[in-house]
Amino acid sequence: MEAVPRVPNVAGALPPGRRERPLTGTVAAFDRARGLGTVVDATGRELAFHATAIADGTRSIEPGTEVLFVVVAGHGGRLEARGLVAASPRGEDPPRPPAGPAESARVSPLR
Asked: 29, 63 in Cβ contact below 8 A?
């Protein structure tokens, strides 16, 4: 059985310590000037996302990119995509976002 990649717990995407099984989808549109985009999941549902929801910190993603993401309740209770990570081809590990302050604090320095 193939291991299911997990979406990182991006700031505010999930409660602390909780990880969800990611959904797959395709970025339908992204407006760099406004930092807003939409992703369409496998069922055809369209979800909005903000540039800050892109897990690798680039704040930009190309339309047509296959992504993994989680769905959360956003402003006003509307569902939105968070923790977007570009999906990798089969057999490859998904890209790992850079370590945040909490992760880097756990790494002990070389002595």
From this structure: yes
Distances in whole angstroms, Cα of residue 1 to Cα of each of 4, 23, 91:
9, 18, 12
Nearest Cα residue to 52 out of 63, 43, 44, 61: 61
Band the pLDDT of 62: cuts 50, 70, 90.
very high
pTM over 0.85: no
Report d(CA 110, CA 16) in Å as an integer. 29
Question: Residue 5: its pLDDT value, please?
Answer: 46
Q: What is the DSSP letter of 48?
A: E
- Residue 89 CB neighbour total at 10 angstroms: 6
Residue 31 pLDDT > 90? yes
23-89 falls under which CATH superfamily? Answer: Nucleic acid-binding proteins (2.40.50.140)
